[in-house]
Amino acid sequence: MAYDKFNILKSSVVPLPIENVDTDQIIPARFLKATERKGFGDNLFRDWRYNADNSPKKDFVLNQDKYSGKILVGGKNFGSGSSREHAAWAVYDYGFRCVVSSFFADIFRNNCLNVGVLPVQVSPEFLEKIFAETEKDTDSQVEVNLQEQTITIVNTGDKESFDINAYKKENMLNGFDDIDYLLNMKEEITAFAENTPL
User: Fold this and answer.
1) Looking at residue 184, what is its pLDDT?
2) Which of 158, 172, 56 is nearest to 112 (CA)?
């Protein structure tokens, strides 16, 4: 399925300065029964967001009106644990288009890239700058430029570069998943097949 094209994202951020956030915390195992990628956002960080009686926990960041935006900023080692794709689905379905951390688990990073969420890995020092600026001003914004592969704290001008696989970058710029990428090359593939002897 095609996703939103990602080029430049400028947004306020939702800070989650917790290290070692694993996929079971992102989306608890009891919510993994569905096979479609819809509805998981309701249960993103379910056990951190809600009490046993389903009332919101007022101290959790997603339940605080002062924080909003399309960029989730997490602590070091975000997305560790099991390889469940549903964790990336939940992040996307909630409305986040970018997750920033100083370290991502590889499988979670790839799952995010497959569903249109850009994982931006920054240095620990830059991560702390984002947290500090957000604490000072909850409306402060971060700009993520995928084409240039840079992330900038708008208020301060602090900027850092990030890495991304060239193939995944091209897909995100075009809003493609792996199937869309192949379909976009259909004419080239057909021409190659017709002109290549068996």
Assistant:
1) 63
2) 172
